Description:
By secondary structure, this protein is an alpha+beta fold. The protein is 30% helix and 22% strand. The model has no long low-confidence stretch (mean pLDDT 93). It is globular. It starts with 6 loop residues before the first strand and ends in a 6-residue tail after the last strand. The longest helix is centred in the N-terminal third of the chain and has 25 residues, at 15-39.
Amino acid sequence: GYIWVCAARKKDIVWEAMRTWRNQKATERFHKLEQMFLTGKTDPDFHGKVVPEGVMSWGEMVYRKDSTLEEYLEKYGIPVDWKYPVGSHDIVDADQWLSKDDSVLDIESGNYVPIDWRNCIDEYIDDLEEDTVLVAVDYHI
């Protein structure tokens, strides 16, 4: 088995196990939400409600009527085209702070456009030495 930790060396991380686990949990959640919608009843520990369009939680539509598992996994799972199954919002190290919300200047248009966050994560992790320790931090500002 694996030990779930919040810090590990890059070389010790089993990326596919992370992807598999996350997609398994997202699949289970989809089926629970679907069942809540079909029965019109939420689980006692669920913070949300069933509405005609689907299931809401914390002000967000987390399940839409007639949605498929594939659609749900596209939004809440880890797609196979992500090289690293990391859903992080920011990357912080001693030299920089990169954010999913960052933008860059498009030379042709002169406008700022969002960065390609998936590519940013992939390149960042690719460039790390195998002994680099990665740490996951849950923060709220």
